[in-house]
């Protein structure tokens, strides 16, 4: 439709309509264009209005008279009929061209394209809530030392490290939270390390005292747990899931938009339980926990760990799952204009890519979308 009714073609048909030189086929095309939307018919009526044409001709005649006087032209030098014929033909043609060029430009020109906002990928940023309730904003440029009791917290770029905490101290709990578009790494007081994906959190004691080391998480967190055989490590996940470990590497995905908590074991051994029903995982296995727990074997570990390794891996994932990752990492709102389309989705791309370039890649699929102001990604198909 857009190619059939391009602006230059419609302007030419208007000109021929005013001169009454339209062919039957051209007349059908112009009528179809006028019927396409009310604005088109209004434009045609505006440009062909007799009163407007008469006014434009009067204005043009005054301009012509001034030009002829300036050039020293006199009608006595030319036959009268020829003057009138040339004058009338030129005046009408000029007036029509003027109307078409000005009117078509104002009415038919495409809307001014807004410069698309460049949405950059997420990065190292988080908020540390200390036991006394004070907040510390963290980002990739930070380099600071935070004193807390006998412990000191060192921030260097996107990582926190705890030093000097005595085992007998009880300094309360800290909480590290990442926003949408953020990620962070923390080395806990026992030497274990946790990587937080976007929109995630971990709550932990400043000192691990007692018979076990217990932390609480939301969102997605990867753990590399320091071995302490006499002090088991326990993770409490929202939705009532408990994960017990000794020394191991595993990933927890517990975002609220997912129907279950997934725990994927990379190395070692863990026990995943809910309501007192444990499931033991071996490396390469994944536990999916909702009302109960089921174990999936032979998991694609590289796919699970893609986020930590700086990649999106959309191989064999649902559109909603992929859009959930995009929402969290780019801090955008995904809106499904006509429901969630059933479109196969796959591919791998760096998380360092800005959203605009990522959308160019997605544009090569069957997915249809538009990026609106206010960081809104609208899926139309």
TrEMBL record:
It comes from the Bacteria. Residues 312-372 form the Protein FecR C-terminal domain. One of its GO terms (molecular function) is sigma factor antagonist activity. Residues 175-270 form the FecR protein domain. Gene3D superfamilies: 2.60.120.1440, 3.55.50.30. The chain crosses the membrane at residues 90-108. Signal peptide: none annotated. Keywords: Membrane, Transmembrane, Transmembrane helix. This is Ferric-dicitrate binding protein FerR, regulates iron transport through sigma-19.
């Amino acid at each position: 439709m857009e190619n059939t009714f391009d602006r230059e073609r419609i302007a030419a048909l208007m000109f021929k309509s005013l001169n009454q030189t339209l062919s039957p086929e051209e007349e059908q095309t112009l009528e179809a264009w006028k019927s396409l939307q009310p604005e088109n018919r209004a434009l045609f009526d505006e440009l062909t209005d007799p009163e407007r044409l008469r006014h434009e001709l009067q204005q043009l005649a005054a301009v012509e008279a001034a030009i002829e006087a300036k050039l020293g032209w006199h009608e006595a030098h030319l036959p009268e009929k020829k003057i009138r014929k040339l004058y009338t033909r030129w005046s009408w043609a000029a007036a029509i061209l003027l109307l078409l060029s000005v009117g078509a430009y104002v009415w038919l020109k495409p809307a001014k394209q807004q410069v698309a906002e460049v949405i950059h990928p997420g990065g190292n940023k988080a908020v540390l809530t200390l036991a006394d309730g004070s907040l510390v904003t963290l980002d990739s440029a930070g380099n600071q030392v935070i004193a807390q009791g006998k412990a000191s917290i060192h921030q260097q770029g996107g990582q926190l490290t705890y030093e000097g905490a005595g085992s007998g101290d009880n300094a309360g709990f800290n909480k590290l939270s990442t926003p949408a578009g953020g990620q962070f790494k923390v080395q806990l007081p026992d030497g274990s390390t946790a990587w937080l994906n976007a929109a995630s959190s971990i709550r932990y004691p400043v000192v691990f005292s007692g018979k076990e080391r217990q932390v609480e998480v939301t969102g997605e967190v990867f753990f590399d747990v320091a071995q302490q055989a006499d002090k088991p490590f326990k993770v409490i996940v929202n939705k009532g899931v408990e994960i017990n470990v000794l020394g191991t590497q595993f990933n927890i995905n517990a975002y609220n938009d997912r129907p279950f908590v997934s725990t994927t074991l990379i190395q070692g051994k863990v026990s995943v339980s809910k309501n007192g029903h444990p499931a033991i995982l071996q490396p390469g296995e994944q536990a999916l926990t909702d009302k109960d727990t089921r174990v999936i074997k032979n998991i694609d570990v590289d796919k699970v760990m893609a986020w930590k390794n700086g990649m999106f891996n959309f191989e064999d994932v649902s559109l909603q799952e992929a859009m959930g990752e995009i929402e969290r990492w780019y801090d955008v709102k995904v809106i499904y204009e006509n429901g969630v389309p059933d479109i196969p989705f796959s591919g791998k791309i760096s998380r360092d890519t800005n959203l605009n370039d990522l959308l160019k890649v997605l544009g090569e699929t069957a997915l249809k979308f538009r990026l609106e102001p206010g960081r809104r990604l609208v899926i139309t198909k």
